Amino acid sequence: MSAGATRRLYGLLRKESLQIWRDPSALAIAFVLPAVLLMIFGYGVTLDARNVPIALVVQQPSAIAASFTSRFAHSPFFRPVRFLTIQDAERAMAARDVQGIVWLPGDFARRAESGGNAPIGVIVNGVDANDARIIEGYVQQAWATWLAARAAATGGDAAMALSVQPQVRFNPAVDSRDYLVPGLIAVIMTLTGALLTALVIAREWERGTMEALMVTRVTIHEILLAKLIPYFVLGMGGMAGSVAIAVFLFGVPLQGSVWVLTATSALFMLAALGMGLLISGFARNQFVAGQVAIITTFLPAFILSGFVFDINSMPQAVQTITHIVAARYFVAILQSVFLAGNVWSVILPNAVALAVMAAIFLALARATARKRLD
């Protein structure tokens, strides 16, 4: 790069840096919005079922029935409500006062003491299918652990001697916060990279500063670099702040290497900036640029990346579409680095995919960028 080109690029970088510093909205999107989103998802959004109101119907009270129902009273997952009859419990569930029913028939104690089969009835409100499956699993776990404890205490036969020793890998606390917060970083960086870049360039077209830039001696490469470098630094700063909040405020474990996280984040940021530059090449109005960026980058990152919804549970056609969503690959890396460590069989192929997508988007942005006013 010649001395003249270096001076021009330095001047453009200084101009972009001053514009960012003087623009509260850009700084808010880069630093305030990530903190707000992390607070909302960290404190206000959970996929765990806690304090679920559940009806307990014991037709014939007994010591055995009390020992089993005490599992629910001391569980953080349930808030038991006792009913005398199954009809009262069903009316409460229809009114959404309880989310499920655990029913111990009148012969429960007799059949349990005789060592025979002593089934219980479980009815779950299936309006929310996800909660229904979670509640069903919690009830089965309570039943299994009670059977194991009873077999150990009474020396029951093999039919009752059920031993449950669950092992949960990578998220031992089974806390959805540890699952959601790393994935949210991908959504935040999408906002910073794609949405912010598309908006600020569209704003320059609206204000006429882009036209003034076009009549100077700067080349299109210098203009693109001047747009790319400051927002790359801004986006990586926002990423660093988000990781700090995740680790030190929410206590999300960071099992992998910080350097691996930084390198892969840089690849994703380049892909996001490429998408933003590509959008800005077609949309020269802030409203249009914002809408296009939300539809093509933010919503796919939120819905189709595996951040909230499991990709393997989606229809095959939708799973195919997710392969063109850059956030899909970054979410897989984030969840691996945070919760499992440097699992290279996950990190390397996804990092390669991000590098390819970054190269494609930046090349398309360069191909569509022209130093002309039409």
| Continuous helix count | 14
The averaged pLDDT comes out at 81
β-strand percent reads 5-15%
Secondary-structure element sequence?
A: HHEHEHEHEHHHHHHHHH
Overall number of structural domains: 2
Low-confidence stretches: 158-167
Give the spatial strand order of the biggest sheet: 2-1-3-4
Distance between the termini: 29 Å
Number of distinct beta strands = 4
What Rg is obtained from the alpha carbons, in whole angstroms? 28 Å
Largest sheet: 4 strands, mixed
Query: Structural class per helix/strand content?
Result: mainly alpha
Helix content: 55-70%
Shape: elongated
SSE inventory with pairings:
Elements: H1 3-22, H2 24-44, E1 52-58, H3 63-73, E2 78-83, H4 86-94, E3 100-104, H5 108-113, E4 121-124, H6 129-154, H7 176-207, H8 209-214, H9 220-249, H10 258-282, H11 286-303, H12 316-321, H13 326-340, H14 344-368
Helix pairs in contact: 1-9, 2-7, 2-9, 7-9, 7-10, 7-11, 7-13, 9-10, 10-11, 10-13, 10-14, 13-14
